Design the sequence.
């Protein structure tokens, strides 16, 4: 591996400078991404064609000195493979044609075969690893069971996800049945990504933060912990660091750090210093500059990078990132500036 | 006052049972609200016609044994009175026709006269007080300076409010200039509501929680504290309890409790017990059941009410509410059930 800063930071080992990658780094803010997306015809087709997924995965690596690549895919590949019928209209967000609403719907769900219905994802992982030539590590990922269940029940995005919440309150047994099958599917999918060559794994719990604290523990955290445990019992995946990112769930950091993961992703609403004070050196931390800063001036971007690095301090175990995905309206030059600033300000000397 | 439970709880005095009111209790979930809204022609006209604002304010009081009424109005009355041109299309949210984007725009803004451009609000307060006949206290309210600035700069709602954030990073002086004039406008407006008869005042900081912690302190908390201080120097308003509600800002509860307010509103992502452990008995707490529970079964609603009451415990200083506004899809019978459950489960005996 010519650049292993990212993996070293996840293991909380010393690094020459702080590694950085960016959530949605292969995304609509890049003109070359928009061109490939156009050629693909649809977002889902882009995900399902390994050559195209590989192409967009590598685009930000070619443009910026990023320290990790992340598989281009979507968290809803699993519900799609379960038969729910995924489509994504840009601007509108994802839709599942056949949401699950009843116990009977849920009882019909099976764990998809990662080398069967989801083989296109594993093929993409293998192809990207080949094309990366070990320049930087490759991150695989999945959605958290709670987040996937939100979409599977609602059938689309929502500001409140009141349907999945109502099921959790009204029929917790049925909700647990759904989360159990989804957690097993996620663990199997992540283990297969590791076997196919992913060198780190990430779970995105985008909607856990919408839950009251007791429901968060029962319906979100519990299943992420279960996934961490299942991966620990897999011969390949046990050696692959796992990053959990529960957006808006900063009040649960200590519990998340005890889940068995290697690192926690952080959104921008907590300082890295406070997060580190709370979780200690049990886990590495990944984050967490407000993505909005990339719409501000170069001086403001550099100042926010400096502030985040200073807030974390000179300990091992920091992976620089935004606190959420980069937005389509960002000028790529601003990201270049941010990546350079991270390396420059954190350089530990020769 | 035939029912002063709400004011007693805000003063942290003993009560016969826990008072309850609901954010957006005069809202679209009520068929009688929808009828009045229809007659008004537009949402803005409903706000600007004291007789109609009074009518919808009283509708939930007639239907449920609520312990407080809240003025029917909108947080954007102040930007509208500053000349920004408010319109609200239901389903789309509010729009300001003339957003402020430059220093010159901001320098033109003045503090509106509450008995001038905003007289319709004061007339509504006076009329509602008359029609309430002291059955329950009346709450007046305003948006926080940061939240109003978000709309004033963006011109509409947004998921990220990147324009106001960019201004805060790039030109903090100009942002402070805007927040200063808005804070003076809010303080004057709230003091006038108190003079017109409002018996409690609330500040809604809907978008403070979108800020990184240092920006929250500098651009949101600071101006709410300033408002609390300005109200303390007003002969009428100093006797009127002030409630601050910063959605999504639970990591700042201690600082919010030190702002000079009487009570904090809480969203549903923290338990009342934890919040109380952190702020002690410095302030009363208002909240905080997940609004989504009103779409669940009667048993689930009653269980969540019980859980919230138990979590707060048998201390004085709790005002029951949801953690955010009631949604249009709620069956009013479910709210009736919740209100009854609050009173029943919290009754302190004869």
Sequence:
């Amino acid at each position: 591996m010519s650049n292993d800063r990212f993996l070293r930071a996840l293991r909380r080992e010393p690094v020459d400078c702080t590694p950085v990658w960016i959530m949605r780094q292969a995304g609509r803010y890049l003109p070359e991404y928009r061109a490939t997306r156009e050629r693909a015809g649809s977002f889902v087709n882009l995900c399902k064609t390994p050559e195209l997924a590989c192409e967009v995965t590598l685009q930000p690596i070619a443009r910026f000195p990023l320290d990790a690549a992340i598989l281009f895919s979507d968290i809803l590949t699993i519900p799609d493979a379960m038969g729910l019928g995924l489509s994504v209209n840009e601007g509108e967000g994802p839709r599942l044609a056949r949401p699950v609403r009843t116990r009977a719907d849920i009882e019909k769900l099976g764990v998809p075969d990662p080398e069967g219905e989801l083989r296109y994802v594993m093929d993409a992982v293998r192809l990207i690893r080949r094309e990366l030539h070990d320049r930087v590590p490759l991150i695989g990922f999945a959605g958290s069971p709670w987040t996937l269940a939100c979409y599977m029940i609602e059938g689309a995005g929502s500001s409140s996800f009141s349907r999945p919440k109502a099921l959790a309150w009204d029929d917790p047994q049925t909700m647990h049945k759904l989360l159990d099958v989804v957690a097993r599917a996620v663990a199997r999918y992540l283990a297969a990504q590791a076997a196919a060559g992913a060198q780190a794994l990430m779970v995105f719990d985008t909607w856990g933060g919408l839950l009251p604290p007791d429901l968060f523990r029962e319906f979100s955290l519990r299943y992420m912990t279960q996934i961490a445990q299942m991966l620990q019992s897999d011969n390949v995946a046990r050696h692959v660091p796992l990053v959990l990112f529960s957006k808006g769930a900063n009040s649960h950091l200590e519990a998340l750090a005890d889940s068995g993961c290697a690192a926690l992703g952080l959104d921008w609403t907590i300082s890295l210093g406070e997060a580190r004070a709370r979780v200690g050196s049990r886990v590495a931390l990944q984050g967490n500059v407000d993505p909005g800063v990339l719409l501000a001036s170069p001086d403001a971007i550099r100042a926010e990078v400096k502030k985040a690095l200073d807030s974390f301090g000179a300990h091992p175990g920091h992976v620089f990132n935004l606190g959420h995905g980069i937005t389509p309206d960002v000028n790529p030059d601003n990201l270049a500036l941010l990546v350079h600033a991270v390396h420059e300000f954190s350089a530990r000397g020769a």
User: Anything to note?
Assistant: DSSP finds 15 helices and nine strands in chain A. The two ends of chain A are 20 Å apart (CA to CA). The mean pLDDT of chain A is 97.
